[in-house]
Write a structure and sequence with these properties.
The protein is an alpha+beta fold and 670 residues long. Among the domains are: 138 residues, Arc Repressor Mutant, subunit A, CATH 1.10.10; 127 residues, TolB, N-terminal domain (Rossmann fold, 3-Layer(aba) Sandwich); 172 residues. 53% of the residues lie in helices and 10% in strands. It is built from 31 helices and 14 strands. The strands form 3 sheets. Strands 9, 10, 11, 12, 13 and 14 form a 6-stranded mixed β-sheet that branches. It has a 5-stranded antiparallel β-sheet with strand order 4-3-2-1-8, with helices on one face. Strands 5-7-6 form a 3-stranded antiparallel β-sheet. The longest helix has 22 residues. The relative contact order is 0.06.
Length: 670
Amino acid sequence: MQSIGVHMPDESKDPPGPFKVGSVRVYPARNLFAGESNEVHVEPRVMDLLCALASSPSGMKSRDELIDSLWASRFGADEGLTRAVSRLRRALQKAGGAADDIETVPKRGYRLVAAVTPLSEDDAGTVAGLSTRGPGRHKALIAVAAAIIVVIAATTFRDAFVSGPTGANGREEIVLAVLPFDSQSANATDNHIAAALADEIQFSLAKNNSVSVIAGGSAFRFRDQKEDLKAVAAALRATHIVDGALRRNEDNIRVSVNLIEATSEQIIWSAIVEHAEEDIFAIRDEVAMAILAELGRDGSQECERGTGQSRVPDPEAYATYLQGRALYRDGTSANLERAITYLDSAAKTDPLFADAWATLAMAELNKIQYDYLNPLEPVPAARRAAKRALELSPCSVDARMAMAIADWRERSKPVAASVAEFRSILADAPNSPTVLARMGMLYHEIGQLDDAVRLFAKGYRLDPLSANTAAFYVWMLHMAGQRDEAVALASANQERWPWVKNLYEVQELPRLLAAGQYDAAREWIHEFARQEGPRPTQIYEARSLLTEFVDVAETGNEFGYRDVLARMLAAAAENRLTYNYVFELLAVAGFHDDAMQLARERIAADDFWFRGTLFRPALTQFRSDPAVFELFAMNGLLEYWLMSDEWPDFCEDPDLPYDCRSVAVDLRAY
């Protein structure tokens, strides 16, 4: 295709002028598309997107290239780009273009496939209200267009949140790892205070979106390996290390802090900070602000901590809290109940200790990660703890996250309100693997799996030594249809966490049935059931039943199928199988009506474990029936998509035999 000199200031010295995309005339200076009989006004970013694609000789731009050139901040840019592409497609179509003028290139980006040609002055002046006759008018148009380029360029290269080797502003990415501080005192209690202060500094730095900050759960594993900081930085993929030591003298705390450039192992900044013991949180904020200033990053925060977290907690409560928090972060079911006991004790010992209440709320909600409990069961206790934390500290991220999760589980708010709250929390905690994972899970449940994968990828980048973070990333990759990537990640962690592969392997049976590979499906049941772990155990106990299902799916034996189905549903009722797994097997095996009926029943029952199931990669054929939107209407997603114009990823599938928006509009009207 022919490229044109628009938008990208380093690609052409000529100002952007009107051009054509296929039969559609494009006027960048007016954010206007003009067809033969109608005009469509678009928002500036949609126009910028088209200009960026048109400026490429191949019409192809990667997602990263588009984000770096069009967004001033990485935060929210992934979903923003998806929305902008969707709006660009609709606008071009309304102006007379083709639905496939913008092509999605899987795992890469987008391509403008329609022909791009400059407009002559005569053609450029045919849009209503725009005349190019006379040099004055033409020069004015060029001046406006040139001004737009300057504004776009200035916006593109502002200081921005970065998540790659270089940021949108061209600066190198900074990845900080805060190691646990040493205690220079013989008092064992000071060891806990030193580690806690480092953790507080890590938390304060992590609130800033101009740097990436490794999670404490990964960084603190190197407590006893500080003699080789280069190796520590390599393991964490950090560019800078923050290390320090604490000494307590009577009523004062004296802290020495070093900021170390990882490659050279040179100290590029150091300071000694001394405060009264009750001002330990002032040390945290002072050190964090100084580090950001040294790195040339803005240290300001929109949401500051409340008074409940600025006061020094009761020493006994604080020590108990640190034990509980360590157990909670361990991420295993064995330690979760112990963590809750410690955190509850800390909160009751010091009722004004906001962090204890907030962490307790999140720990309560995490119970369902390890057992198929009723997800609403821990909500009341979590709400009580979170409410108390917010009374003490209105900006507490953990408390706000706990409330948002509780609302989402109970569906006590509209989908749009929950999405907005999750995004607000992520804006205040851009480096929190927990928040990234929770936002990713929500995206998964509303069908935006590509965005979910990107959030989980960042979480794994910031917490590379967390088994839970790796496990959920593997699982989400598979849910998004990126099976090869899921296998590769699980294989890379096979020695450390051999059970992680179960999270994608359990989805092999639906995949094999969808492909009609019945012998391979039976072999998989036999092999998977021999492995260790909760899901293999479940498959092992149901192996005969699942094998019978594969048999009836292959033979089409109606009588045998009805018997097997009844027993599979009974097994699900007894928690020996999950309803979402039974549904998926029905759907991929071609038992469409029964799958639809089971889906209706589970959505009507607000089955938490069923949420997100309809977007699984093996269900492409099932989703090809527009009747699936009746299910989305039941669970509130249809209304959300229509209102937000943020459609699920499967709507981008070029082989989908219907237009999602048209089906949704017709269904709502009906």
